[in-house]
Write a structure and sequence with these properties.
alpha+beta, 3-stranded antiparallel β-sheet, 5 helices, protease, Pept_M24A_MAP1, hydrolase, Methionine aminopeptidase
């Protein structure tokens, strides 16, 4: 959380901009507003947008080759080859010791699944492929769910409702609204459909680093959290469980997050930039 809570962009000719004035007024009312470093310049947004275009291309590459009989290690190699051939770097590779270029989370794996030669996708699986890209120092982040072969109606519904949660969270994100508005909308939709929201993991600011402020939680109350100011770049990435929201981390690798009850989990993610008229998607 930034210590600088009073002001976002620089001044024009020594005078506060209209954006500055509005943010300062919200700060005076006791709202948590972003520090200047969290509001990206137009040049920075363009850099993140270019990174996002490569990131989307990576997921399109995965979509073209994923299916029954494919190992998650093959997905990892495809991600690495596509990313590096486009002059970019897979952000997960060696991040805090993560050993691969992509997270592949199958069935009851919530997130941070590590690709393996031994993990072969089979008919009926659902898998989240989470890719993050660094291009010219700019970061982007997105994930998609893939249905492998003949997937049961119950799993298909989980995947679809989770995608709806992402869309509803995006629609709840408004300029000068609050981070809590996003989480409230997602939680309400997930629970209305009989699912639970993972609370230990969240979306985040992104762009100049892999993870920036603010945390974008996928549950909560409206009107709480940091103010969403035009120029902020962040992810929304709801993780929705078919059963209990309880999770654990596999002690064997220290990364893989699984559902406590062994039931499936799903996740979708985009990177967004907040504009004066609402969020714009930078990754698909």
């Amino acid at each position: 959380m930034s210590d600088r809570k009073h002001g976002c962009r620089g001044k024009v000719d020594g005078q506060p901009t209209e954006l500055d004035r509005r943010v300062l007024e919200m700060a005076r009312r006791g709202c948590l507003v972003p520090g200047r470093e969290l509001v990206k310049t137009p040049e920075q947004i363009e850099g993140i947008r270019r990174s996002g275009a490569v990131n989307t291309g990576v997921l399109d590459c995965v979509a073209a080759m994923i299916g029954p009989g494919v190992s998650t290690a093959e997905i990892d190699r495809a991600v690495y080859d596509y990313t590096t051939s486009h002059g970019a770097i897979p952000a997960p590779l060696n991040y805090e010791g993560f050993p691969k270029s992509v997270c592949t989370s199958v069935n009851d794996v919530v997130c941070h699944g590590i690709p393996s030669e031994r993990e072969i996708l089979r008919d009926g699986d659902i898998v989240n492929v989470d890719v993050s890209t660094i291009l010219d120092g700019y970061y982007s982040d997105a994930s998609r769910m893939f249905l492998i072969g003949n997937v049961s109606p119950e799993r298909r519904r989980l995947v679809e409702v989770t995608r709806e949660c992402l869309r509803i969270g995006m629609e709840a994100a408004r300029p000068f609204g609050f981070v809590g508005d996003i989480g409230h909308a997602i939680q309400r939709h997930a629970e209305k459909n009989g699912y639970s929201v993972v609370r230990e993991l969240c979306g985040h600011g992104v762009g100049l680093a892999f993870h920036e402020e603010p945390d974008i939680e996928h549950f909560g109350r409206r009107g709480t959290g940091m103010v969403l100011v035009p120029g902020m770049v962040f992810t929304i990435e709801p993780m929705i469980n078919m059963g209990s929201r309880s999770i654990f981390i596999d002690e064997a690798d220290g990364w893989t997050v699984l559902t406590d009850d062994g039931l499936p989990s799903a996740q979708w993610e985009h990177t967004f930039v907040m504009t004066e008229s609402g969020p714009e998607i930078l990754t698909y």
